[in-house]
Amino acid sequence: xxxxTNGGVRQPTFYIPHGGGPCFFMADPPGREGMxxxxxxxxxxxxxxxxxxxxxxxxxxxHWECPVPTVMDAAAPPLLFDYYGFPDHTYRLTWPAPGxxxxxxxxxxxxxxxxxxxxxxxxxxxxxxxxxxFLLIEPEAALPTVQLSLQDGLDPATHIAIGRALVPLRDEGxxxxxxxLSYHNLQGLFAPDPRxxxxxxxxxxxxxxxxxxxxxxxxxxxxxxxxxPGARASHPRxxxxxxxxxxxxxxxxxxxxxxxxxxxxxxxxxxxxxx
Length: 275
Fold this sequence. Notes:
Elements: E1 13-17, H1 37-45, E2 56-66, E3 70-72, H2 101-113, E4 119-121, H3 128-137, E5 145-151, H4 156-165, E6 174-180, H5 186-189, H6 194-211, H7 215-223, H8 231-234, H9 242-250, E7 256-264, E8 267-274
Parallel strand pairs: 1-6, 2-5, 2-6, 3-4
Antiparallel strand pairs: 1-8, 7-8
Helix pairs in contact: 1-3, 4-9
């Protein structure tokens, strides 16, 4: 991740797609060559969207849920290869970013100040919602990184509130990134049924309009996301959408915009920046 060292400029927040498993580091399925190329190019180019190089990363991955928001507070977290059935070489990927126990403690302090219980985990490793996209975004693995879990129950208002508690970090040089996928129906992804494509299109249109709405209205719409057109057809279970709630909450009153749009197997996928 190139750029200047942080000098007090407020960082934006992001909701990014992390693809499917280690998709960027293996051959595409026959007949679908290049399906991840545009997403990979977006992730590699994300540092160019920053005002300056952050001092640290706080990443909320769709692949970690806990009873309370929980931070990894190890000084040198390992990788957690939480995908299955992929080529052997994808289990030898490395991304040795240092942890940041002080930042983990700061996150817990901000949550406590907002009246929220939290936890810490000194043993867990970065899951593929972190290391797969950040192998492209931050291949040097030099930035201290803390991973933050989702909270069991996946309540959208709770995750927006978690994000709001973390707003001060943006003025402290921390880049907050929600890592998920704006369309996550694995059964519907390759389905030829035109109804699946229409539902995905409707939800992506709604999601983009919501992310770009007035921040107060944005929060209300995201809280009630399951009523959106195509919502449950796009997210039978919402864990891949909830990192957006944290990123949008951490945006505070800053506007949002779509910064990436593509189609994977004919289904629209988007990424958003706030601030």
